[in-house]
Amino acid sequence: MERILKVYIYQEEEKPIFHQPQLRGIYASEGWFMKLMEENRQFVTKDPQKAHLFYLPYSARQLQMALYVPNSHNMKPLSIFLRDYVNMLASKYPFWNRTHGADHFLVACHDWINFVFLYVFYKIFYGLLLLSNLLQGPYTLTEHEELTKNTIKALCNADVSQWIFVSGKDVSLPETIMRNPRKFLKGLGGRRVSQRPILAFFAGNNHGRVRPILIKNWSEKDRDMRIYGPLPNKVSRVMSYSQHMKSSKYCICPMGFEVNSPRIVEAIYYECVPVIIADNFIPPLNDVLNWNAFSVIVAENDIPKLKQILLAIPLRQYLIMQTNIKRLKRHFLWNVRPIRYDLFHMILHSIWYSRINQIQIPHPY
């Protein structure tokens, strides 16, 4: 990839969503990729004729902040904006029409991409809104058919039960929390296995379909299972959130409103074996990483058996998984200047790999 791949970045300064990366917070993955992609001299070409891939510098976060009217549940303006932008590119450049967008990609780490499923869930489950409003919020991509069907989408919300994400074509983007970009790498790593007395740990907001079940079954039920909602003050004063991760053998990573969870990458940072609870979720970088070698995937229906499942894992197997995490942690790190095999390179490789697999080579007869 380092010797061959060239990417052209559309330079149109179309506000509010392009070329304005958000580098902090829970959705920082899309911003950091945009920043490093646009600063790159190795993969980026200024000649679109030489490009293998075309990057749409799309920011779902910027789009939401600029165009969404709070509490309106109306995604239409966001969808139309993106549709008009892509149509403008297609009319100005010949490259979109050459493959109908199949050699183009966007990177987005925000639930607004798949907002409508959350919206419908709350209406049906809680009965808060009228049925007549169910179709108010289309996806931000669905106003443009080729963009939805053909373009490679690197998304944090890699949910195969929702037709917007297509396994084998689209890319599962790791969701990473960026609290302080200047000190991002400070404090990473964990304790030795012998200094991890906690079997399993989770703390977080109690939302979505999975977390209420997890908390109901395990919160304050078992000393080995440190399962909380938001981490109580009396607990955090003794041991912080990151210290809990560093002191736990397994870190529980249940889905929230959507299947993705930043805890998966956090667990890897603190060398804690992630336990993923999210049916239909495609783990990040699964084109090159065998997640069974360093994580545990538990079905949502098996939450009541969670401790039994973890205790059944032999110590030898756990040690192998934990060692593997130490080895592959570098693949999930952002660096101010990209380093070979870091997260920037891994995401770009996954996108390139997806495109290569889509190309149909004529059969020699």
What does this structure look like?
The chain is of the alpha/beta class and 365 residues long. The protein contains 13 helices and 10 strands. It has helices at residues 28-39, 60-67, 76-92, 95-99, 115-126, 145-149, 211-218, 233-236, 241-246, 263-269, 306-311, 315-328, 343-358, and strands spanning 7-9, 53-55, 104-108, 152-155, 171-172, 198-202, 225-227, 248-254, 273-277, 296-297. A 5-stranded parallel beta sheet has the order 1-2-3-4-5. A 5-stranded parallel beta sheet has the order 7-6-8-9-10, sandwiched between helices.
SSE layout and pairings?
Blueprint: E1 7-9, H1 28-39, E2 53-55, H2 60-67, H3 76-92, H4 95-99, E3 104-108, H5 115-126, H6 145-149, E4 152-155, E5 171-172, E6 198-202, H7 211-218, E7 225-227, H8 233-236, H9 241-246, E8 248-254, H10 263-269, E9 273-277, E10 296-297, H11 306-311, H12 315-328, H13 343-358
Parallel strand pairs: 1-2, 2-3, 3-4, 4-5, 6-7, 6-8, 8-9, 9-10
Task: Offer a concise description of the structure.
The protein is an alpha/beta fold. The chain has helices at about 30-40, 60-65, 75-90, 95-100, 115-125, 145-150, 210-220, 235, 240-245, 265-270, 305-310, 315-330, 345-360, and strands spanning about 5-10, 55, 105-110, 150-155, 170, 200, 225, 250-255, 275, 295.
Tell me about the largest β-sheet: 5 strands, parallel
Question: Helices and strands: which structural class?
Answer: alpha/beta
Chain-averaged pLDDT = 87
* Number of DSSP E strands: 10
Output the strand order for the largest sheet: 1-2-3-4-5
